[in-house]
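ingest -> validate -> predict -> emit
validate: passed (alphabet ok, no gaps, 190 aa)
predict: started
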Amino acid sequence: MTDKTQLESVLADAFLNFSDRLGETTVEIAAQGMIDSLTRLRGMGFDQLVDLCGVDYSTYGDGKWTGRRFAAVYHLLSVANNERLRVRVFAQDDDFPVLESCIGVWASANWYEREAFDFFGILFTGHPDLRRILTDYGFVGNPFRKDFPLSGNVEMRYDEHLGRVVYQPVSIPPREVTPRIVREAHYGEA
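emit:
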């Protein structure tokens, strides 16, 4: 089992934090030089990137989060050692999150990085084809960001008179999304 001391020695200056909860190990590394760190982890036997996801921590812990806002979380697997490792890397700029692409370390990162770009707006420098993967190319915004409106910004519909698809401001009236079992007895009454 990979322990804190072993990870600290392999990751050196890039090592920032370590936690081991419920049998799941998470290590946080610095964004600067992250490719070197990820390459070292691959050399330790973590030869598969199982998943990569973006995270928006802006409302984490009931809004008490004080650290960086955006992170990429890498889920690694060592088949030979039957071990998993979660690696978290925070982007340095909350307004324009940028991280290095790890496609050179694990080719499977390609579509995962595109998904994090599409949903969270995290840019991955060095990615060979960084474009939207699940939303429409004309989509405005990043739908998994915590500040993205629930109903979106624009809606798409087919206009019979123009004979094409058009985008227009959202016309969906806002509604209450709190389940009835959670609402107070006289919720919404005047």
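The mean pLDDT is 87.
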